[in-house]
Amino acid sequence: LKVDCNGAKRDIRALWFSGRKLMMIDQRCLPHRVRVEEYRDHTEVATAIRDMVVRGAPSIGAAAAYGMCLAAMNDSDLLMAAKVLKAARPTANDLFFAVDHMLTRLSDGEDPVKAANAYADTIVNRCRTIGENGAPLITEGGRVMTHCNAGALATVDIGTALAPMRVAWEQGRKFFVYVSETRPRLQGMRLTAWELQNEGIPYAIIADSASGFYMRKGVDLIIVGADRITANGDFANKIGTYEKAVIAKALDIPFYVAAPISTFDLSLPTGDEIPIENRGEEEVIVIEGHAIAPAGATAFNPAFDVTPHEYVTGFITEAGILRPDEVRKIGGSDGE
Amino acid sequence: LKVDCNGAKRDIRALWFSGRKLMMIDQRCLPHRVRVEEYRDHTEVATAIRDMVVRGAPSIGAAAAYGMCLAAMNDSDLLMAAKVLKAARPTANDLFFAVDHMLTRLSDGEDPVKAANAYADTIVNRCRTIGENGAPLITEGGRVMTHCNAGALATVDIGTALAPMRVAWEQGRKFFVYVSETRPRLQGMRLTAWELQNEGIPYAIIADSASGFYMRKGVDLIIVGADRITANGDFANKIGTYEKAVIAKALDIPFYVAAPISTFDLSLPTGDEIPIENRGEEEVIVIEGHAIAPAGATAFNPAFDVTPHEYVTGFITEAGILRPDEVRKIGGSDGE
Asked: Is B284 in the A-facing interface, judged by CB distances under 8 Å?
């Protein structure tokens, strides 16, 4: 993750452990300020996850793993810590996966820091492999569209949906990225645009509802991330993903989902069983501190939607590209 | 158009003529402030159209008609005034229709104020008829979705897409409206929500990209306005309309377009010939004076998209509900 820190280019992760503290970029301050905050116990980490200091399913998982690490170092009750962390947000599978993973490792007597660092390193390595597996889909001169931020910020480093773009760019291919702004929190405009700009990859921000306009003009490939993928190949991702998938199908545009195996939840048969987080209406009707809607207005704010498997061309994973009907094959693996 | 003016409920139009001045609600100040501005010549009116003090195809037409009226009263060159007004915005057919209509009336020696008032009254009467024609589509307990603002503000009074809702509400039916916020200028959140709230009709604002989520949950009817409708039944409307139409078709949700005959442009065979206005990128990346995107970011900002006729269930007009293949039937009429 390339960042510009006081004029110097640095390559850092979205979160990392230093001494007895978890360090995390406060993603709410981007793109204008790279502010790194310190966290000393698991309750602080749970709050940071809830308040979206850190967001993106794999980064949430890594933050939770470090939260469990802090709980162990502070001699907190591990089962209680697991409960607090798991309650921070409801949709991303990685959160539960990471906490359970750390519980197992810690009960096996493993060193907490080593175990949490290994968890984060594994995510980054998987993202690299996802990038390598997905890069051939991006052709010279191609027009790629993505939604929200499934970049380095969302995955400790490298990204899921952005990983194939990073690798294709490193391989010297030129292409163009349409970044949908991703209301209400504007993670596309704030975070994905910032990551692409730091890499030098050409892009344009568009209103979410201009996606169909540009798809109709000509988009070669859509890649998004996922928060949870179920056994039948349905998946949850940022609100607005479903719309892009439906339009892509109507226009015969390949639609790919990039995600590590830890995002797959084979315990759920279909996407209908994924709990969808409803966030506060202020996220929609108050922008940058300004109330936009008329006084007394009501707003609904589902954070995610579910896209049925029939709209997915393939899942780009560290184990290769899977068709939706191949998702069940990964059963038995816990993603290790 | 019910407004709350210093605590008193009033019923006014979005624009009206008073003395030798055109009065227009500055729609950019809504919903927080009802500010009425005065215009004394056609160049001021053209600027107001360009800067979106007034917006919505029929209201733009009425403003232009009053602009021609002012030009006549001020003894300005009428052909020059027509040119200036027509250049204000490129997509809405009503603008050209209204200016040409006034040129004919004025060259026939008609009184300018009388002619412009008649033009505005005709719009309002047509909207009332559109409302009556469309109201039976809204059933008790129904869930209706709309996009942008095709309400009283957009059409002098009553509205096009909102007209069937107003009439159904007057008839005593209860229903619920999903209002998509309509980035980048948020006319749904600012204007449609404000109109519905003033009428007492229950609604919720949603992010544009949550439309698909709620359509999948259950929406019974979508009604939008139009800026131009071509001979084959394609139509241009606010960016994001195309997306809703594609998703509605995938989910078998009836998708209606409410527009007066003046919005039909039978001189264009298909929607591909409609000029689409591209507006400045600041509308996307600067919100309420705050720059959101990273410094140096690029944004694209098409104001409209074209929806192909195969996605339209029907056009709700003052002449009844037309199927797309019936649009050609209205040829020969100039909408009078």
From this structure: yes
